[in-house]
Specification:
Number of helices: 15
CATH architecture of the largest domain: 3-Layer(aba) Sandwich
Helix content: 25-40%
Structural class: alpha/beta
Number of strands: 15
CATH superfamily of the largest domain: Response regulator
Shape: globular
Strand content: 15-25%
Radius of gyration: 25 Å
Largest sheet: 7 strands, mixed
Number of domains: 3
CATH topology of the largest domain: Rossmann fold
Order of helices and strands: HHHHEHHEHEHEEHEHEHEHEHEHHEEEEE
CATH class of the largest domain: Alpha Beta
Strand order of the largest sheet: 7-6-8-9-10-14-15
Length: 415
């Protein structure tokens, strides 16, 4: 047994690569085999002892599905998943995952790991199959959907972009699609068998606007598609058009930027920037003694980096909207093992919630509520309660209720 472990450790060390986002290879992953070299059979008591002694490889090698009365199938399934063992098709939970790996890049790994963690948390045999369409061209998606149907799946979790969701919506496939990456409002028309779990950014902006000087707001944004989408939504939420400030230079001088755009006392700033740049902006506001009404941000900055990078004075008037709710502890831990963070990663959270809904419906439960997450499906869109947070003592805490009077009436005159 020790020799086996040393051999595996040596193999891992030899082929290990630096930690970085990975894409699916067109070549299928190799499966492993564990061989039972013992001449004597291993009964239930023997298998139980191996598990108790944490001899996982010996357990996997000596497990015989044909002689199992159901007591050890979940343990074997768990080990088989982590060790990528070759195994027969199981009579248990089955979930299909549609992933256009070139279109969504690193998110493909987050989505598939989220579904794996959810299935593992149930402690029962399961089969998860990933169908990689590579891109979101009509022919590619049509081919993948037909493969899913031929494999006997009625439903699939589909990690698509907005454009991919529009293409899939036009196909009228018989496979029910659950799209955790797109909000229903982003699609003009979709069939009844298509469900969505993406963020409603306008709702988050409405919640944040209660903490803003809505008549003197600046929007700091980046060229990314997400940043521009939020900026466009802000124009529809605020009663007066916000002053837009685009940050193109990665070495931007925030002190000079604030002077150039006359961002001064009493203003509110909507930060549609990534966490590191958001932290830099907040620090410079403090350093330049700009007494803003508030700094605001949506889900894109509900990130643990904001708990460590800025100082406490930098975030005292910082408000962040988030739709991530409390999660199951076992599910969180399993996601952590697979390098997902269910507490802060929106893609992991929404994918897990949609996987839970697929599982419910596979079991014949068509209730609109996802019990594990306490979420409702309404008009084919998962509804997420929006909460506004502040940062206190390196933690996200619920913000106090917004002021009853408009913020712009309670501020000193602008500079």
């Amino acid at each position: 047994m020790k020799k086996c472990l040393l051999l595996i450790a040596a193999s891992i060390a030899l082929f290990a690569a630096p930690s970085q986002p990975k894409l699916f290879s067109p070549i299928g992953a190799a499966s492993n085999e564990v061989i039972d070299l013992s001449p004597t059979p291993c009964d239930a008591r023997c298998l139980e002892r191996l598990l108790k002694e944490e001899k996982e490889f010996s357990f996997a090698a000596r497990y015989d599905k044909a002689n199992d009365d159901g007591r050890f199938s979940a343990d074997y399934q768990r080990l088989a998943t982590f060790l990528n063992l070759a195994m027969p098709r199981v009579n248990g939970e089955r979930i299909a995952v549609l992933i256009p790996s070139e279109s969504i890049g690193r998110y493909s790994v987050i989505v598939s790991n989220s579904v794996s963690a959810y299935l593992l948390s149930k402690g029962k045999p399961f089969e998860m199959r990933v169908f990689d369409s590579v891109d979101e061209k009509p022919d590619s998606l049509d081919r993948a959907l037909k493969e899913i149907e031929r494999a006997g799946f009625n439903r699939a979790l589909a990690a698509l972009t907005v454009e991919g969701a529009k293409t899939a919506a036009s196909m009228n496939s018989r496979v029910e699609l659950y799209v955790p990456t797109v909000n229903r409002n982003e699609i003009y028309s979709a069939p009844d068998n298509m469900y969505f779990g993406g963020i409603d950014y306008p709702k988050q902006l409405e919640a944040l606007s209660q903490y803003a000087n809505r008549f003197r707001t600046f929007v700091l944004s980046e060229p990314s598609a997400l940043s521009q989408k939020i900026t466009a939504a802000a124009d529809a939420i605020l009663p007066m058009p916000a002053s837009r400030v685009m940050i193109n230079d990665p070495r931007v001088n925030f002190s000079q930027l604030f002077k150039t755009h006359k961002i001064g006392t009493g203003a509110s700033i909507l930060l549609n920037t990534q966490p590191v740049r958001t932290s830099m902006a907040l620090s410079q506001i403090t350093f330049n003694d700009i007494r803003i009404a508030s700094a605001l941000s949506t889900q894109m900055n509900y990130n643990p980096l904001l708990l460590t990078l800025p100082q406490s004075d930098d975030v005292k008037n910082f408000y962040i909207a988030s739709a991530i709710g409390p999660g199951n502890m076992t599910l969180r831990d399993l996601n952590q093992l697979l390098r997902n963070d269910l507490r802060f990663d929106w893609t992991a959270y929404s994918s897990s919630a949609m996987a839970a809904m697929i599982s419910q419906r596979n079991g014949g439960d068509y209730a609109p509520r996802v019990e594990l997450f306490g979420l409702e499906m309404k008009e084919n869109q998962l509804q997420y309660p929006i909460k506004v947070y502040q940062i206190k003592n390196a933690r996200f805490v619920l913000a106090p209720p917004p002021p009853k009077s408009p913020v712009n009436q309670t501020l000193p005159p602008s500079e």
